Give the backbone structure.
Amino acid sequence: MNEQEIVGWLRETDETRLEELWKRADNTRKKNVGDAVHLRGLIEISNHCTRSCGYCGLRAQNTKIERYRMEPDEILECANKAKEFGYGTVVMQSGEDLAIASGWVAALIRRIKEETGLAVTLSLGEREEQELTRWKNAGADRYLLRFETSNRALFDKIHPPLGEKPCDRIALLKQLKHLGFETGSGALIGIPGQSYEDLARDIMLFAELGLDMIGCGPYIPHPETPLASEMETALAGGDETQVPNTELMAYKVIALARLVCPRANIPSTTAIATLNPARGREFGLERGANVVMPNLTPVKYRALYEIYPGKACITETADACAACLRGRIESIGRQVGTGRGDSMNYLLRS
Ligand code: 5AD
Ligand code: FES
């Protein structure tokens, strides 16, 4: 698909045509990755962050949140729970927390691998190549780092560099892939100042990078961030080029991501479930997605990991999310995946 065709779908409003898009995405998903829905247990290990992203509630300047960092034993307890629930993977995510030292993470990875044998995914932000290598050697399998937007000027605006060091997530993604990680990325949908062409190029970049995993969700304004007020202006302005941060736009991106990267693992994300708690997860799974990420974070920390307000599953326990998602998967005639659920793209590459 070229940029024009993708923009055409992103701007499509005709319901019959959209049904066609959903069907094409769903068939492509079925043919390439099957009916299994893989579960990834998400552990939000720290909400400390040194960065100043314009969109994210964990940004360093937000003094209104209480900060936490989980202890290794607490994290291990979550990983053991993941195993008990039949998840094949744990995802450890945090803000860009420089107090999370590379040796600390490496030791943690080793313990999780030894005690549970689960696949380990890291989502710890932009880190040094040395650290990434060390984590790979310790047994980490996958790394997630969204590039957020392929529009360089927009990215620089919403993601100021840290000190002198320029920041190039696309180069880092290539490095991750080179190090042998199953590599995941994705974009935010409806950032103020994001055009339809920008978003189309994001989707084309998924294919160019040959991503193994693609996670996308609508941008949800957080009141304690600078971008939130811009969103009001962007929407009130009636700007025809601005991508809306809607549920529908998120499904279009999932469907198009599936069409350009047929073998990738694509989650139906929490941000979509936040916009539509009743049916969002299911719609995502029926429009191209094949993964969900149940939250394993202990309840006392969940509310503190508020990257955006109203985040789904903030009061539920790990047990509740496990049961909830199984039920949702079965309600649409799909099965819960067994095993690690590695990306088909990665398996064929290596
Ligand atoms: N709305 C939606 N998604 C957000 N993220 C961060 N802040 C927000 C927000 N306000 C997403 C980013 C990040 C991922 C972990 O969460 O895309 O990469
Ligand atoms: Fe957490 Fe449904 S996934 S309550």
In short: Residues 79 and 218 are 28 Å apart (CA to CA). The two ends are 26 Å apart (CA to CA).
